[in-house]
Amino acid sequence: MSWHLRASRTTLPSLITVAILAGALFSAAQSAPDKPASGPWMNASLSPDERASLVLTQMTLDEKISLLHGTGMHGLGPMSPLAVHSNGGAGYVVGVPRLGIPDIQMSDAAYGVRQSGENGRYSTALPSNVGAAASWDLDAAYQYGALIGRELRDQGYNMSLGGGVNIPREPRNGRTFEYMGEDPVLAGNMVAQLIKGTASEHVISDIKHYALNDQENGRNAVNVNIDKRSMRESDLLAFEIGVRQGDPAAVMCSYNRVNGDYACENSYLLTDVLKKDWNYKGFVLSDWGGTHSVEKASAAGLDHEQPGEYFYGAALKKAVQSGKVPTAQLDDHVHRVLRSMFASGVVDDPPHKGVVNVARGFEITQHIAEQSIVLLKNAGRLLPLDASKLSHVAVIGAHSDVGMISGGGSAQVDPPGGNAIMPAGKGRTTWQAEIWFPTSPLKAIQAKLPHATVDYDAGTDPSAAAALARSTQVAIVFAYQWESEGMDLETLTLAHDQDALIAKVAAANPHTIVVLETGSPATMPWVDQVSGVLEAWYPGTRGAEALANLLFGEVNPSAKLPITFPKSDADLPHPTLVKAPKQSIADDSKPDRWKRILEGLPPFQVTYNEGVKVGYKWYDAENKPVLFPFGYGLSYTTYAYSNLKVTSGTKVLVSFTVQNTGNRDGAEIAQVYAALPASAAEPPKRLVGWSKVQLKAGESKEVSVEVDPLYLSIFNVDRNAWQRIAGDYTLLVGGSSQSLPLKESLSLP
Ligand code: BGC
Predict the structure, then answer these.
(1) Residues 513, 534: Cα–Cα separation, whole Å
(2) Which of 103, 401, 434, 646 has its CA at a distance of 20 to 30 angstroms from the CA of residue 415?
């Protein structure tokens, strides 16, 4: 968050610390001597709910309150004196040792464990979440989450802050790299696997930021206006699938307001939808500084405040004592926290610090990167490069001699050895700074070409870069767009005039391949001039090795875009980003910054009147041509689709044949879309399923995709329920949202 390191070393103590210290006084009694807990709640054969209920009856009011708030945040000035055992992560909650309830040690872990450097530790950086979504690989998503879970435990944490699944209605959002693309069915299924993977390691898992936190600009003030049907069918559907399938132990509510109320005191989001409709049993914690009240938040369903106790410490205690917050409500909050602790296994199997398995991390992150890098263009089949035919290659731009970029903010993973573009020992990771991982494309490419000359040009002088390109057989230009929490992109145009560099190199050598390192879609005015384009996202610790394997064909590309690449910003539902007015931004330099945020900044409005037309649904409905469509990605082989059969029993079953018609083994992400009956008034089509099919050269396979009835439904606001409209449906099958050769209709009652 923007106050992690920048703003608040001086400002936060003035507010939160006072509250923290006050809290410390009233709750100091809870640090009872540690003794092995022996109550009936320690019986692991009881259900998490039974165990939570049993231990709750033993707890004092102070002990209950202490489970409902944090104790300050490391790096933000003095922590609560109760935080002596904090592991240094973003959040720390004092447990109840006398009853065997451990502390909660929270760490950010979007694409790897954060702040390992500060603790003198190491974390693997996985490819950014949007990159992982490009793999459409459910098993990879599980491995992704499990790696995070393991490395959290190795570093002494028992709770993950990750699982970002906001739908990028605003793709210039600086956190698009932390989310899983524009389609709720893809994003929801992927995040559910990530959550399950994390939970499998006995770590409290999380999904965030619930909900509609789609721009960073003015995030603490913005009021998002959106109709219920659109949010249920898009933004909330990703969470619904993530929550129902993944069963995260925690849900983090977001900073912004939704239809008038802050997300963290929004009874529609927290109680009506999450806890009632989805029957969610875990706890809701606020984003850091996202709690804004006691009674309203508590009644709306907020269970836990982070990082301090401005509202959920002494003030909550007072409200309970005076009856303003009913005891049953308090107990429900506490029950949920306890239940999640039992359910996730942190009580029975607490973490012990260990050695991060670096080698295993390399293997997993490289495998996922190889599954996530999308081949967007391959004119004249220039790729894969044939090492035996190359004697001179140019590698240009984006610090590709030393590293690849990573995503910033609370997601930032520390690179081994420090920022690769800095002198050794100087590359400290700081808030909102471009951090380059020491995975060198130049070295990885040279390793594939032991007998060729590989020359590097920094790209700072386009004429010099073009001159080098002209003298080589192939020019590989790297271009990047850095993103971070706490900021948005002004535009999808690449920064630093990189378009001009690429155009100039391409004009000098038609055998130009562009490798993009971006978190969001990028526009490509030069696309017709180059031979190849690969989208590498922020590829993580072993990005360059993965990329080189794809460039030279040791791995056949299989990833497909989880987000549409439009031709220009003008084609977006909102051609310009809505900026917060001055009064809706708390000035970093003012001492009352956090008081103003916590007590509520004046709102400004963002209105998502594109409704359900999000991502490809927008471009389809508006008939806007795109640069590269959702679901698109090339391979070094080709695939053919045939033999579609659609049957309906309790579920709709779609089966078809996919054949690898080329001479290389590969994996095809076969996609199934549905067009709903006209009376449903939906965009032309929506993704309803997919299968990633491994096919040897020449091989055919029959593929079956069972369509979840939810994915064929619309949300009926009057009935407050999902409903399948009777009528004629069309099922469409193929290799991208705009290449769907198979089609069959089906009439459903
Ligand atoms: C971010 C969260 C993060 C939290 C703790 C907030 O600013 O929005 O994603 O988990 O800080 O660092």
Answers:
(1) 8
(2) 103
Residue type, 166: N
Strands 532-535, 374-378: pairing kind: antiparallel
Residue 666, pLDDT above cutoff 70: yes
Residue 10's SS3 state is helix
Residue that is written with structure tokens 């400004």 in the block: 604
Q: Sort 463 into a burial class: Cβ within 10 Å, 0-12 / 13-18 / 19+.
A: exposed
Residues 527, 423: contact at Cβ < 8 Å? Answer: no
The sign one gets for the Cα dihedral 695, 360, 247, 616 is negative
Helix axes 48-56, 327-344, angle to 10 degrees: 130
Structural contact between residues 725 and 735, judged by C-beta atoms closer than 8 angstroms: no
Q: What is the pLDDT of residues 426-480, one digit of tens each?
A: 888 989 999 999 999 999 999 999 999 999 999 999 999 999 999 999 999 999 9
Distance 730 CA to ligand 1 centre (A): 42
pTM exceeds 0.85 for this model = yes
| pLDDT one-digit tens code per residue, 599-653 | 999 999 999 999 999 999 999 999 999 999 999 999 999 999 999 999 998 899 9
> One of 183, 214, 287, 569 is an active-site residue; which one?
287
Three-class HEC string of 77-130: CCCCHHHHHCCCCCEEECCEHHHCECCEEEEECCCCCCCCHHHCCCCCCCCCHH
Check if 287 is active-site. yes
Q: Which residues pair with 405 in a beta bridge?
A: 436
Residue in this structure with the two tokens 């870069």, named with its chain if needed: 465
Residue closest via CA to ligand 1's atom 5 equals 90
| Cα 109 to ligand 1 centroid, rounded to whole Å | 10
Which pLDDT belongs to residue 18?
Answer: 37
Indicate the angle between helix axes 358-372 and 543-551, nearest 10 degrees.
Answer: 40
Share of the chain above pLDDT 90, in %: 91
In the predicted model, what is the mean pLDDT of residues 6-22?
35
CA dist 644 and 477 (Å) reads 41
Confidence of residue 279 (pLDDT cuts 50, 70, 90): very high
